[in-house]
Amino acid sequence: MTTNDLLQQERTNLIKVKAQELGFDFCGVSRAEFLEEEAPRLEDWLNRNCHGKMGYMANHFDKRLDPRKLMDGAKSIVSVLLNYYPGERLPEGSDDFKLSKYAYGTDYHFVLKDKLKDLLAFIQTEIGEVAGRAFVDSAPVMDKVWAARSGLGWVGKHSNLLNRDMGSFFFIGELILDLDLAPDGPIADYCGTCTRCVDACPTDAITEPYVVDGSKCISYFTIELKEAIPDEVKGKFENWIFGCDICQDVCPWNRFSRPHTTPEFDLSPELKAFTNSDWKEITEEVFKEVFRRSPVKRTKLEGLRRNVGFVRGE
């Protein structure tokens, strides 16, 4: 191992230790390079209109595949995972309205971005003049692919990243840096012959293992779609009014999920007290108060009312 290799490994270890101190559950590194294998897959996915009305998915095709087009001089990508699996859950009986677990607390964009900025500041203080950008699901970055390349897990048949120690209930963020670091290699795929996620999806959004037609996903209908939800999926939502966790809930690897340690992701007292009547009769004032810093804010009040009405068969 050369002196340069040793320096890269030392810096990489330093960053990983700090990431853990900041509360991240896992941290890995990959080289910033063109995603050659992903290019034809992404093109095919877009050509089949699997992104539905999510027009932004078709934008910045080149940047999505090459981080060096997002930041000049990019050399490494530091990927991090932050667990959000709740210790306390909303009721999920057959009559209860259901909310994806990622939306129980504060919007993850705020929480992850702050932690990533702290990590970047640490790198710049400890290592020197390092240019970097933090990304949390808000730019054309293929976060699951980079996390997989960093050895943090593998992309499962439901297209979510799976980690052997923690399952899939976590957020992904990354720093793109103009700093050479020691990259981690990818790990094997441990889905095996299991097809529980494929079989359980009520709208058949997982059209084949590892391929999700986003335009058929309950999360797409309840969050991304801004117009009326199509009648052909009526009766298939199993009371999910914001997002959907079915493919993750049935995954055997999520038996390893454990409660998160991030207070911001805790179930808010107001949400905990919500009844079905509260969801049906929600007002603008209540919506603004309860979901002020929540991911649910994204669907807006009219979108939430539409979703509640849809699962009620209205």
Automatic annotation (TrEMBL):
Instruction: Tell me where in or outside the cell this protein is found.
Output: Cytoplasm
What does the UniProt keyword field contain? Answer: 4Fe-4S, Cobalamin, Cobalt, Cytoplasm, Iron, Iron-sulfur, Metal-binding, Oxidoreductase, Queuosine biosynthesis, tRNA processing
Q: Which InterPro entries match?
A: 4Fe4S_Fe-S-bd, 4Fe4S_Fe_S_CS, QueG, QueG_DUF1730
Q: Identify the EC number(s).
A: 1.17.99.6
Catalysed reactions listed for this entry: epoxyqueuosine(34) in tRNA + AH2 = queuosine(34) in tRNA + A + H2O
* One term under GO cellular component: cytoplasm
Its required cofactor(s), as named, are: cob(II)alamin; [4Fe-4S] cluster
Domain of life of the source: Bacteria
Which positions in this protein are listed as binding cob(II)alamin?
64, 137, 161, 172, 219, 244-245
What Pfam families is this protein classified in? Fer4_16, QueG_DUF1730
What are the binding positions for [4Fe-4S] cluster 2 in this chain? 201, 217, 244, 247
In this chain, tRNA is annotated as bound at: 226
Q: Which residues form the active site?
A: 137
The alphabetized list of GO BP terms reads: tRNA queuosine(34) biosynthetic process
Per the record, the pathway is: tRNA modification; tRNA-queuosine biosynthesis
Residues recorded as binding [4Fe-4S] cluster 1, renumbered to this chain, are 191, 194, 197, 251
Query: How is the cofactor bound here?
Result: Binds 2 [4Fe-4S] clusters per monomer.
Q: Could you tell me which residue ranges the 4Fe-4S ferredoxin-type domain spans?
A: 184-211
Q: Which GO terms describe its molecular function?
A: 4 iron, 4 sulfur cluster binding; cobalamin binding; epoxyqueuosine reductase activity; metal ion binding
Its assembly, as annotated, is: Monomer.
PANTHER family assigned: EPOXYQUEUOSINE REDUCTASE (PTHR30002:SF4)
Family membership noted in the UniProt record? Belongs to the QueG family.
Q: What does this protein do?
A: Catalyzes the conversion of epoxyqueuosine (oQ) to queuosine (Q), which is a hypermodified base found in the wobble positions of tRNA(Asp), tRNA(Asn), tRNA(His) and tRNA(Tyr).
Q: What is this protein called?
A: Epoxyqueuosine reductase
Kindly list the organism's lineage.
Bacteria, Pseudomonadati, Bacteroidota, Cytophagia, Cytophagales
| Gene from which this protein is expressed | queG
